[in-house]
Amino acid sequence: MSSLSQFISDLASGAVRVVDLTQPLGPDTPVIGLPEIFAPSPGLSVKQISRYDDDGPGWYWNTITMGEHTGTHFDAPVHWVTGKDLPENRCDTIPVGRCVGPACVVDVSADCNADPDFLITPDRIEAWEAEHGRIAGGSWFLMRTDWSKRSDPASFLNVAADGPHSPGFRPDAVELLIERDVLGVGVETIGTDAGQAGGFEPPFPNHTLMHGAGKLGLASLTNLDQLPATGALVVAAPLRIVDGSGSPLRVVAFIEG
After folding, report:
1. Sign of the alpha-carbon torsion through 142, 146, 149, 152
2. pLDDT mean by block of 10 residues, the chain; 257 residues
């Protein structure tokens, strides 16, 4: 039996299980907030075209409007100024094979429960590698924080007088992941940088360094608590938007049942 035939058989038998890593997307889905001097990204709005009525007696469909980076979404390198001149840096030009890869899942949920500003460090990555093996090139690095379990939008955004507070990456940790040649990173928070990352050096290091290196980002993931530390295969393919900087998407993981 070929590898693909075996995979299909394992899906049918339940030996391989599909886990949905995608948050539901609706008008109430939170979007990232920016200072008033910058243009905001709109959330999802839905307008009915027809629903089995005079405008379309046999069909139902809607018009949708939203920012590219809404809900569970994909960040292409062109999203950030450091990646703007790279080749194959947009949603329509990134080779589709780069959207599929094994996952390395680092569980820092207890740390984030104790400290919402928790940052992944090189030491934490290397400690994970000592237990599970070196991160292989072409892997997704997924940061499990259990942040997606914050069902209240205010708690999810966690904005205080000095700005949002949510976990993320220290700049030197991003540099280490780039050295490991990961596909990109995935997080459960609204963006791939920590809430306070605007004050880091460089500011927003995951966006600045990752996208400058041609790497990808996944934000607002969920169900990372269902994935093993290693062994999952993640598929995260954005809509093929021409010149797109990102896209809402359905992220799925395949794991042994």
Report:
1. negative
2. 93 98 97 92 98 98 98 98 98 98 98 98 98 98 98 96 97 98 98 97 98 98 98 98 98 97
Residues 40, 157: Cα–Cα separation, whole Å: 15
Question: pTM of the predicted model, to two decimals?
Answer: 0.96
State the catalytic residue, choosing from 73, 79, 207, 211.
Answer: 79
Are 113 and 107 in contact, with CB atoms under 8 Å apart?
Answer: no
Question: What sections of the chain are H helices per DSSP?
Answer: 3-13, 109-114, 122-132, 153-157, 171-179, 205, 211-212
Strands (E), the chain: 16-20, 45-53, 56-65, 73-75, 100-107, 119-120, 140-144, 159-160, 163-164, 168-169, 184-187, 216-219, 232-235, 246-248, 252-256
Specify the pairing of strand 216-219 against strand 184-187: parallel
Amino acid letter at 19? V
b/e per residue 156-189 (b: at least 16 CB within 10 A): bbbeeeeebbbbbbbbbbbbbbeebebbbbbbbb
* Residue 79 annotated in active site: yes
**β-pair type (119-120, 168-169):** parallel
